[in-house]
Design a protein that fits this description.
This protein is of the alpha/beta class. It has ten helices and 13 strands. A hairpin with a 2-residue loop joins strand 10 and strand 11. The protein starts with a helix and ends with a strand.
Amino acid sequence: MWLTHDALQQLAHLREGFLKTANHSSDYWTSEDLLTLYDETFAERIGWKWNFVLEDLERRSWQLPEGTLLDWGCGTGIASQKVLQSPIASAVCTVSLFDRSALAVGFASRKLAHLFPHLNIMQGDLQDAATVLISHVLNELTDQHLSDLLHRLKKATAILWVEPSQKQIAMRLIEVREALRKDFHLVSPCPHQHPCGMLAPENARHWCHHFAKPPAEAFTESKWAKFADAFKIDLRGLSLSYLVLDKRPVPPLPPKTKRRIGTMRLYKASAALLLCDEHGVRDTELRKRDLPEVFKAIKKGNIPSLFSAEITHGRLTMLNPV
C-alpha cells in the first residue's frame, strides 16, 4: 500500500492540516492505515531529526537519567523509538506513552513492544517521569496549554524537545527555553547558560535552527524519490529546532565553544557563519587564507555545528571541533 494514489491523498490532507491549522481542536488520526502511512513517511523524517540531536548528545557523553521515559504527544512513537535505539538511553527500561489520540497511543505501544520486547510500556501522562520527550507539538498548543505543560515539565529531570524550524515555532521554543532555564541546565544546542542571544533586537531577522543529514537511503530508495516528488520536498533540507534540558550538572564544554546556527553562506574565498556563544549571536567571517583546511572542509560540507573557536575582529582565526 506504500504511496498509492489514495495513500498520497490521505497524506496530503494530513499535511495540509499540519501546515495551515494551528491549535488543532480535533483528532486528526482517523485510522490505523493513516498512522502507518505517516510513520513510514513524515514520522521517519522526524526520526532523522532526532538522530541528529541524539548524535550531538552522544558526542557530549550525555546520558538520560534513570527512571521512566515519557513520550508526551507520542503520535506513532517515533521520538521514543529513536531515543531507545540510542546509547544515551541505556538506563531506561520503562516508557509511558501519552497522546490525546487513543488510536495513536495504541499504535505506538504495539510498535515499541515489537521493537523492544523487554521494554515495560505504560500509557498516560505520567507525572513523575524522569525524562520527557516532546516532538512537533508547538503549533497545536494554545498559550494556556503551553503554560500548563511548562508547569508540569518542571517535575522532570531531563527534557528533549524537537520542533520544525519555521521561525514562528523556533521563537516559541526560545520562549520555552527562557521559561525553564532557571530550573534546568541548558545542554544543547546552547553552548552557554545565559539568556538567548536571538532575543537581541539586532538578531530579529534570525532564528535558531539547524540542519540534520538524511541517511543514504533518502537518496537511493525509489520510495523517497516518489515521496519528495509528490510533496515537492527537498530531501536534503532537513531542518529543525530543538532544546535539551537537564537538572543534573552537565558535561562541561571547552572554553570558547560556539554553536553554528542555520546555513553558511559560501563565497569564493570566504564563508559567513552565524555563531552563538555566551556573548550572543553574531555573524562571523571565515577566510580561506586564515584557515585553508577548515575552508576546504566547509566546501565539502564537513564542518561540525559545535566547536571551539577564536574570533578576532569578526573573523575566525582558530577552529577546533568539540
